[in-house]
Known about the structure:
15 strands
Amino acid sequence: MTATTLFPDTISLNQQQSVGHADHWACLTDNIPNDVPQWLQQHIDMATIPHGLTNDQPSFLNTLLLSGNLDIHINQVVTLTDAGKPKSFVNAFPCVNSPYGQWAIIDSILRCDKRQEAILRLKTDDGTILYAFDQLYTVNQYHYKKNTRYFVNLSAFAYEVQPSNKSEIITVREPEAIRYHLAFHDILAKNNNNPPIDLEQQIAKWQPDPSQLPLEPIQINVGHMCAYLFGDTIGQQDEAWCQGQVLGMQSTQFNQIACVLLDVVILRESLDNPVVIRIAVHRDKLAKNIRVGDYIQANIWLQLAIYKENQYSKK
Length: 315
């Protein structure tokens, strides 16, 4: 076995495929040429040195990753002189901190060495595939191992957040699909909406009341579903569409810009381990009538961060 087989599969991206972060900065400002350079300078003065899977940043790269501890902050990659002084700018992008995440393996890495950035293809324990931009790639890239489970914190920026379309209705007529739907909701109702460990076995055994036969078609409101669709363009798979339920909301600021943090469940494929992410959105791009419990739709830039301390505390 060669050493390279210890690392996840990698795909190299050129700078045209790794399109940059103009659209991501646009989530925060309409005046990128003026605001972003000022922010970069201001945030260097209050920057922190982030640690991912190790307590040290790789010195042999002659690069340094600068970050921050605020809900919304900036990560900057700069090169260093032999004396350890900042030399030149490599990359910068806005980030969102999140307490939510999933256990997953890194299925593959799409990287752009020129920009010192990457998108990770993740596979969760239940087989769900997620693509997310790696906030800490500069410090973690040489520590990722193949077929190793990591706890991955998940966050996102939303370009705009709107209520889901509750007029989308589908009618289910297939008898077994109707039986499954009725069984699912009946069993949850009997368990205070907490799915039992043997949920699938109970559904397989469940039978309707004979007086209800034949089963009538049922209508399902698609606007009350959770869904996640990642991008299909290579190098842009971290751009996604999602629909989900808002579990929490709080106000925050980024450089005096009013923003909102939404805690949103975007997938419920695994009932006992739903995929929840923290989404940051400019207050002006959030529909005014959104409340906790509502279902929303959004185009998002999905991000991840992998920290050493979370690999032990969240198992």
